[in-house]
Each structure stands twice: as C-alpha cells, then as structure tokens.
Amino acid sequence: MKLLYRCCAGLDIHRDSVSVCVRRRVRGSSETTIEEAVFGTFTQELERLRTWLKQHRVRQVAMESTGVYWMPVWNVLEGGRSPFTLTLVNPATVRALQGQKTDRIDARRIAEYLQYGLLRGSFIPPKPIRQLRELTRMRVHIQQDRNRVISRIARLLETVNIKLASVATNIVGKSGLAMLRLLASGVRDAEQLADCALRKLRSKMPELILALDGRPDAHSRWMLSELLSKLDWLTEELARVDQRMDNVAAPHTDPLERLATIPGVDRTTALVLLAEFGTDMTQFPTPGHLASWAGLCPGNTESAGKRFSGRTRKGDGMNVISEDRR
Question: Is the pTM of this model over 0.70?
Fold first, then answer.
C-alpha cells in the first residue's frame, strides 16, 4: 500500500487515559519506528500530550469518537499556534479482531490506518458552529420539557372536568394562560374565566363557559399553580437560549435569511440546519451526500433479487421542534 503520511499519530481515548502511538517511516528505508505513551485526561496532561506530539513533529492525528471523551482532547489539539490536522473516525471502521484488543493495540491500529490513508474522517464543523449546535440541541431538550409540562396541565384539567382543550387550540396561549392563572388563584366562576378570551376565541364564549364549568378543588389548584410556575421557568429559559443562539449566529445572518426562504423553514429551523450542516458545503461532494448524512435518504439493500428494508436511519441528532403558536 502507498504511504500517505511519513509521520502520524493514533489516539485511543478513554475517560481517564489516552494511549498514543506515533508511527514514523525512517528516511531512505522501508522501516517504521513506533513511539508510544499514555497520558491522563486532566487539562495539564492534555497540554503535555500536545507538547509531546509537537516534539515528535507530528502533524496528522487520528482518534475514535468515544462518547464525549474525545471532545476535550480535540479542543486542546485544535488550538494553539500550530494546530494539528485532526481526524475523527467512527469506532466501527477500526474495530479490532477478536482477542486482539488493548489500548496500545488500538492506538497502533489507528495510527497505521491513518498512515496509509485508510481512514475516513467524520464531519466536525468549526468551533463556533459546534457551539451553536450545542445550543440548538439544548433548546430541543428544553422545548421537550416544556411540552411535557403542557401535557400534564392538560391531563390535570381533564381530571377536574375542565374541557378547555376542546375549545381552545392552544391551552397555554395568551388567553389560555390568563384563564389558567385565574383558575389557580381560586376563581371558579366559568363566565369570569371565559371573559379572559381574546380575539377569535371570544366568538366561542358559550362553548368556553360550558368548558370551564368544572369541579376544581384546592389540591388541583395547587397542582396547577406549580405546573404554571414550572412552565414560566422553562419559557424564560427558552428565551435565554434563543437570545444566546442569535448572538452566536450573528456572523451568519446571510445564510440564515436564505435558509428561511425555504417553504416551511422558520428562523428556529434555519438555526438548526446551520448548526448541523455548517457553512462549508465542500464537506459534502453532492446534495445527495448531504441528504444521506442527515439521514433523509432511504437505504438500498438488495440480495439475490430481493429488496430488503430501505427505511431511513436517524440523522446526526438533528431534531427540530417548532415554536408554539401563540
């Protein structure tokens, strides 16, 4: 096989240790020398790892995507005046043979595969895009928590026979929240509660009065008050994350505006797309590669003339949760 790099390093990363193997082809010879070491994962140890690699004049470094443990190693090696050319690989592509797996062997194998150009790196966007990705994924979890609280409020109302969801499209919209806060404060009169309706909802006053004529007791009002407090807290947290996302994405206003011109794509979805794909489309040779990476392409599996399941796989953790319609 053709040698791609004269000197390179492979890293086998774990929570508390990093096994390193440096492979170097001796000039004018077909012999290869190997240097090995083990480092801890505290920041000072990772800085020492970077210095050790520089002392061995390493520029090409490959590592497995082991949980989240590769991230601090990547961040340390990525920075500095003379950053390394880093390659992150799927562990499945460098799987060891049965009975031949140790940390040292894994590091050696990664280094050897890298030296001969047998590794295909994963797509790792620049640090600002990675930070935006963390924010969009954090937003997904907050929105999921918020939706769960809304579902609990809806179930609680049903248990005391308040059928607000049968009349109002959004029980936590501006009108719905006003009714719920009044209900939690102890008001039971259906007409007084229904009078909080705004705009189009006021045209449904007779149905609202019937829907709000329930049997809430002190316990259900206390539960409703607690759930509304939790909903307010999550709404405020969502607003803070949205503000932070806007700040981080400020340098990318133009691509965001263009993404938002796609039918069905609002600003939140555009931010998710930017965070997941980045701005450098040269990472994807064709639109088909991008769609495949996002998990939007059906599989193509056929054997002996028989086609098997072609269902799409999950993408790279890209979940989009739309804004509530208020």
Answer: yes
